[in-house]
């Protein structure tokens, strides 16, 4: 049910300079989902009356992602005045006139924050009498974060930013998590008093705590035991740590759902992937995007699947595949490269050192060894000989090949597209197929072989080859 006395403000306007990236910080991904989308998804779970997201740096790129993830969010543009305090000031100004509840402010760079942690904060705030309740935690390394300064009796006094802190303050290991719940009127009163008089020349939201306290209001900090839940991402080291945490949770979730994951440390599963019961995932495997793996399939080792479908009981070994569909009972790899548009039928095979692209290979058909299949359709029950190249590119345009059902093509063929090979046809080893082959025919175009007897004895006398030939008695 919608919480009509809750508004959520998500701060997403910062530059994220510590990422040192052309990609805005909040669009860097964990488990295949941008940082900001994780936060928006959590916000959605709380079902607040209003969600406001504040943007500025690369705002169009951010807005595109925000509208996709949480279209109901109102977007507010931050102006040239920097700082989290300014961002909240503008968000508060955009609240509907009639709103008079609590304002939950969340930094946009806290992707592992979950709705349960936020609900605890909301409950604690509403049960107490504080004008503001914030989340704090004790990370392994507090460097860079704002420190929680408490009075001698242990109550929350103020927050000091790392860059403004004295050595004694920097020695404090309790940090501000960047998640705050404010009563609207108390917040509004104090926002008016923020200044940019600090090391970074920004309006710090964190100053509100000290200001409230000085004005005689109560403020409280709720400590989160598992610091990773609330750690903000500022650089790529923190990003990889958070991504590993999230991945461990995802892998464990699938394990508890009946998936065998032999080596969780080298298995990466994106948030949108799905795995059925009795799937086996072997070490060194990435299951990315919206990949779906059906019951009993085995994937890995050393396999990357991006937006793929793997059918029931299929086996995929040492393979790189993107936008490919692998049928039930089919076998792929080792060392296969499946590019977009590959569709392998039920019980089909794409074997060792085989590359496919935009290729529909029918039920039970096999491409076992050393081949390239591009822009092709292969019917059912056909076998493509070892070392076959579908020559789909004439240097200007791409063309298609159609291979019928129950075809047996010889080794080391070239199919020069456009070409059609009829049902049940055969081709000889080494054939370059340039013309259509009617159903049931044998196509062969290699020149007849000539043996020049005694050539070695005449032209390579005294060599080991000549001796071996002489000794063979033939
Ligand atoms: C902030 C806190 C710090 C806390 C830490 C927790 C302040 C002043 N400091 O520091 O006490 O320990 O988070 O992770 O708030 N943003 C805006 N507008 C701006 C600047 C930032 O919307 O003008 C957004 C950013 O996009 C980001 C969030 O606010 O999502 C936090 O900004 P960031 O620069 O990461 O602040 P920290 O230095 O991490
Ligand atoms: Mg941060």
Topology summary:
Elements: E1 3-12, E2 29-30, E3 33-34, H1 35-46, E4 48-55, H2 59-69, E5 74-77, H3 84-93, E6 102-107, H4 115-127, E7 132-137, E8 147-150, E9 156-160, H5 167-170, E10 175-183, H6 184-191, H7 207-214, E11 219-224, H8 236-256, E12 260-261, E13 267-269, E14 274-275, E15 280-281, E16 285-288, E17 292-293, E18 298-299, E19 303-306, E20 309-310, E21 315-316, E22 319-322, E23 325-326, E24 331-332, E25 336-338, E26 343-344, E27 349-352, E28 354-361, E29 366-369, E30 372-378, E31 389-391, E32 401-403, E33 408-409, E34 414-416, E35 419-421, E36 426-427, E37 432-433, E38 442-443, H9 455-459, H10 464-471
Parallel strand pairs: 1-4, 1-6, 4-5, 7-11, 12-15, 13-16, 14-17, 15-18, 16-19, 17-20, 18-21, 19-22, 20-23, 21-24, 22-25, 23-26, 24-27, 25-28, 26-28, 27-29, 28-30, 30-32, 31-34, 32-35, 33-36, 34-37, 36-38
Antiparallel strand pairs: 2-3, 6-10, 7-10, 8-9
Bound molecules: uridine-diphosphate-N-acetylglucosamine and magnesium ion.
